[in-house]
Request: fold
Amino acid sequence: MRKPLVAGNWKMNGSSASNNVLLDGIIAKSDTFASVDVALFPPAVYLHQVQQALAGTGLFWGTQNLSQFNQGAYTGEISALMLADFDCDYVLIGHSERRCLYAELDLDQRVLDRIVAEKYEMSVKAGITPIICIGESPEEHAVGRTEEVIARLLDTVIAYQGVEGLAHTVLAYEPVWAIGTGRSATPEWAQDVHSFMRQRVAKHDPTIAESLRILYGGSVNSNNAAPLFSQPDVDGGLVGGGSLNADEFVKICQAAVLKLG
Ligand SMILES: O=C[C@H](O)COP(=O)(O)O
Reply:
């Protein structure tokens, strides 16, 4: 049985004061979801605050991005080694908001997937578990290209790092049309796509595929979390808006506990 994981991506939200309220509310109820993994992803400037608050609670923390480089003249970037300095457990890689809003192209304008694969390699080497986000755009969804898009990215990561790296990786299916729209994928749709992802990895290594955690992300809330998480190949959620309110996020974490029966 894969252990469910609920990841709260705060995106560019919060302040020192509001973070304290949110953290206190989550920590106060953490014994009600102690049987699942829960990780928080604050903006990088609040990483120290979150690290201090979560130390000793059993909750995990991470960041929303990292550089594909180790160090040097990369203004505004944060390396995997720096994240390891903060004992980061996880890092989000390839979130659609990075891909779409910040056009993560390299100097040769090579495809985004290669950047994702390079970041993946950096995080694995630093001992930080990457959560690789993939999903189709509304346009791709409309013309039925979901599996093609997902297969392309998965194959790029596997080709670049080898399937072995996926043993230490989490995948997140994040259909772009569901992010921040209030329009979640149905549990059935999520299950079909997650199953496709697992089967794609299984072609390379069935054992790794079986143990691979695949999260669903896109308008997860306290009403739809339980039906989504109950699907056999949905191993938890990557939650944006729903992670900004302690009561709401705690309910989502508790929904993941139900999966354990
Ligand atoms: O990282 C989280 C996802 O982008 C989902 O965001 P959302 O829950 O606000 O739709």
Notes: Confidence is low (pLDDT under 50) at residues 105-110. Residues 5-258 form a domain with the TIM Barrel fold (CATH 3.20.20.70). Residues 9, 95, 174, 179-180, 217-220, 238-242 surround glyceraldehyde-3-phosphate (CB under 6 Å).
